[in-house]
């Protein structure tokens, strides 16, 4: 199919906005952004006259504008701010660190890999500028999102080829090692990359933001975050709202949601204290360097962030949205899944594609873990999920199962330290929690 014009992309985006609930928020954000200022900056940076600026996309943290020039060429501007208002309460300092880390990551990928990412032409790390927000000017790579191309007749063979290419790009990431866990930064003076403290991503920041030198230190920081969140005054209120949303969807609804939320808070407060103590007794060194490296991970590698060629949808042209990327232990990176059931609604096909991805990684990476070690890593991922997700939205049944799976795979000497908390969890969990866990796909 022929690539759509910028005007067609802008019209489609306008239709999406009008059909969404975010029109008012978009108007609010747009009112504080000076597109004429953006046009002038683009003209200065590219040394030619920009003639048009149009909104062609938006994500959780940014709006994407296409800027066209008098000679017919164009570039992309990613301007901070989104009608989703996901980070409206975050400090400017934290927002700028996240943008800076994304810039460093893209630069690193350009230097060290063949992963298709756009060239960053200009970086503005300030809110005090003619545009009204931080932004980047980037090369525009023409392509369509895989999620959109599926609606345009993309075949299953073409989709499978995309999965293969993405797996090979993942393998490149998993072959590059770092000395710590955290977020990637670039020093323009020394022209070197470094792993620094964790920046904003899809989770809150732990009190200790790293960089961390081991799996143990990283997990302890996440558990500390959960314990500090439990001390916040709005935890029970947020839990009540979440329970209310799910209560209408289960067969045996809770009779007293407020009482359940208060009980869950008391349970998790005790349970996470026990978890923190139990983790002190676990030796995680087998999962760390030199056995397995710390590696760079995208954090949201999905069909919505991969663009393919319009004429040949089996060819990956661009992978976007590296803003949440970070350096993590190998066991966490290997657990990422590019394809989910909701991408294809075909369990057997998803299973085949996932197996194909794993085969590609296994054949591409030296020292790839055997099946037993992969199983242990998967159990560790489950533990990480409990430590990382928003706890007020986590059924107790899921927390129980994840920790039980992890403890079962450890030595008897280590597993015994989890017995008290597992007994507490099993005695506390109710049928409604199990129903909610099932509803969430666990």
UniProtKB/TrEMBL annotation:
The keyword Acyltransferase does not apply. Residues 92-329 form the Aminoglycoside phosphotransferase domain. One of its GO terms (molecular function) is kinase activity. This is Kinase-like domain-containing protein. Keywords: Kinase, Transferase. It comes from the Eukaryota. SUPFAM superfamilies: Protein kinase-like (PK-like) (SSF56112).
